Every structure is written in structure tokens, then in C-alpha cells.
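Methods — Computational structure assignment.
A single polypeptide chain was analysed. Its primary sequence is given first, followed by the predicted tertiary structure written as C-alpha cells.
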Amino acid sequence: MPEVKIIGTGSYAPELIVSNDDLEKLVDTNDEWIYSRTGIRERRVATTETLESISAAAARIAMEDAGLKAEDLDMIIVATLTPDYPLPNASSALQKELGAAGATCFDLNAACTGFLFAMNTASMYIRCHEAKYILVIGAEILSKIVDWTDRSTCVLFGDGAGAAILAPSENQGFIGMVTGTDGTKGYTLTCGDTLTSGEQDNLNPFKPPVKSEDLISRYVYMDGPEVFKFAVKRVPECINQVLEKTGMTTGQVDHFVLHQANARIIESVAKRLKVPMDKFIINMDRYGNTSAASIPIALDELLKSQKVRPGDVLMIAGFGGGLTWGATLFRI
């Protein structure tokens, strides 16, 4: 069974930068209020960009980094909760845009944990000799599902895409992984659309009408305190589970790449793990919470910095809607 490694990464964010001061013109908030609670200063918002275009931009950077062409790809997995269309799916549209005619394509939705789930899935395909080069994308256009009059959510999210290419390796890359889901708490983070909100049901002559009070909002709803409590508990738990599973310790981990949702969550995780903050990458101050894109964007920035050396051990961990969580330990 071959080992698996990351051979290239890339990321892309829309051109428009929306600062906290810009949001002050829309809702009752200010830079100090937002930054002190979230660690976010600004975020990128798509105007002319689509999920396909930002995914393709990130993918092309990753392919160049890996020294591959589109025709080399055996598989494309896109992690997203905000595709441009229900059909065709995001990965098929990306395949067409890149010209990766030989790639098997599918989408995966595990919200903010989506990229981690997709990367783990890709590693299994490679280990089973079913694919050689797999492009994994985490991409979101969250601005289209945000209620820009709700200060509790509109200050949090941003748009962007991150990509990684996985390939077989003779040396150990992926060391261990843990994933989990608690569907009983799934409705602490919700978002409907025309197909799921209940509005479409009212156009179906064979179904009873849905009462207005039973309709699900088309916009993101989040029980912030509950999600915070969930994250600060589950993330260190799953990190410790991976370490126990692999016989390693936090001291052997050189860098931690966590989902970029809230600086206070990362600080709490670091405290619980007794790991110094300088081992954690933080970039939500510039991007906000980009859901499935947050980990690959942070990973790309870290790997292209001067901080990482060959042989370094990285811990990726995230949490998201579902509720989902996971952690993956790998060596560069």
C-alpha cells in the first residue's frame, strides 16, 4: 500500500476587500467590536467571481506548484456548501474549465470540515491504487448565503478557495486521521435554499403547503455560543485522539493548521493542548471564516512561507456544520 503526500498547493481569494469599517456602514457594529470577538479585520467578497472561477484559479496554482498538467489528474474532489449550481456539480464544472477530461469528479459537503474530509477521502483512493494524482479543492462563496443585515453572522464570513494535490509517495506522508459527526446538534448551524427552505414544496401540487413559521431561512443561521462550546471541546479532543492513535505527542508537531473561524477558539485550543500560539497559523484577520476554504488557504500560506522545512509534521484540524469535526496528522 503506497504512502500519500501533498505535492502542491494553491489558493485564491476575490479581489474585493471588505473591512470591518465597511460593515459599520451596513449594520450596528465597528472594528473594535468585531476584532475583539473574532480576530477578523477584513474579508474577501465575490462580485464578478464564481465558485468555478476561484476554484480554477487555486487549482492552476496548485498544479503549477506540483509540476502537473490538467490531463495528469485522475480525480477532482471539491468540498463546498455553496456550489454555483446543484447540477452540474462544482467538480464537474471545474473539470471542464481546467480541461481535465480523464478525471473522476465529485463534490463533498461537510461544511467547514469539508476540505479535511475530502483530503482524507483522496488519500484512501491513492492507498487503494485507484488514483495517482488527485486535486482536492475547498471553496466557498459564502457572501451569497449571508444576511447582510444580521451583524451576528455577516461579520464572520468571507469567500475564497484553496487547493492541494495528493500523490503516492515512498515515504510516509499521512500519519493518521480522525473524523466524527454529531447530527443531533446539526441545527445549531443551518442554511436553506429554494429546494430546502420549504418554498419549493409550496409549488408542488402533490404536497401540503408549508406554513410560513416552518420555512427554513435561506441565510446562514448559527447558534454562536453553542458552536463555540462545541469547537473548543471537540477540536482538542480529536487532535489528542490522532496523537494517541499514532503514538506521537504535541511536542513532535511543528505546525498546527486549524479551521480559521475565530481567533478565540484557536487560542482556547492552544491553551487546552498546552501548545504555544506560535505553532498555530492565523490568517482569519485577512479572510474571515471561509468555511471549507479556510484550511487549504491557511495550509497554502504556511507551506509557501519560510517556516516549514522538509520533514516537518503538521496537524490539520477543523469543525463545522453537521456538526462535523476531524484532525489529520502528516509529514511534509
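Note: The chain has two domains: 3-170, 175-186+219-331.
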